[in-house]
């Protein structure tokens, strides 16, 4: 536990130094960041939109700012999700945001839960309401895993399709019941041109749907 906390503090310290360098590179004459890690987290949430717009500005125009990659520089853009970069998030899912394109886009709460809790400090009341059902659901999952079962059926390792497979084995539509129980984010979605540099990115809090992809695309264009 002590080693894990030390690693977290080290990563946060490296992150704060990187943020400091990035803001100075963007021409800020002076940068003031909190010394406390808790205050730094809140400061990062508040400054994230501004820093993301800077990032998008630089790499979407890297042909003119950094230098052209060749005759085909930035001719095509690919958008795809990556589930490996996941993290624990608050289990409160009934949270929506409004954009210029969508009147209502449900993303859920993106804050990290408190220690020994499934909810953040804003939605701790939901922990009491759903605590019983969550514990029962977790007990059922443990029993199924011990019995070698998944969804009531004997689990078998999926066969390898080999080279040339057309499927990525990801289900683009998950049931609402699964999304409501999920306590982790669904990774990040990246916008990458043929130059192989990341132009924009965003975190996925529900599932990789067309609305999520369009939301990132519109945000990148506005940025």
Order of strands across the widest beta sheet?
1-6-7
Specify Rg, calculated over alpha carbons: 21 Å
Q: In whole angstroms, how far apart are the ends?
A: 40 Å
Instruction: Characterize the overall form.
Output: globular
Kindly state the number of beta strands: 7
The SS-based structural class is: alpha+beta
Tally of individual helices: 6
Helical content class: 40-55%
State the low-pLDDT regions, or none.
Answer: none
| Strand fraction | 5-15%
Q: Helix-strand pattern, N to C? A: HHHEEEHEEHEEH
Mean pLDDT: 76
Architecture overview:
This protein has 223 residues and is of the alpha+beta class. It has a domain of 136 residues. Helices cover 42% and strands 11% of the residues. The chain contains six helices and seven strands, in the order H-H-H-E-E-E-H-E-E-H-E-E-H. It has a three-stranded antiparallel sheet with strand order 1-6-7. A two-stranded antiparallel sheet has the order 2-3. It has a two-stranded antiparallel sheet with strand order 4-5. A hairpin with a 6-residue loop joins strand 6 and strand 7. The model has no long low-confidence stretch (mean pLDDT 76).
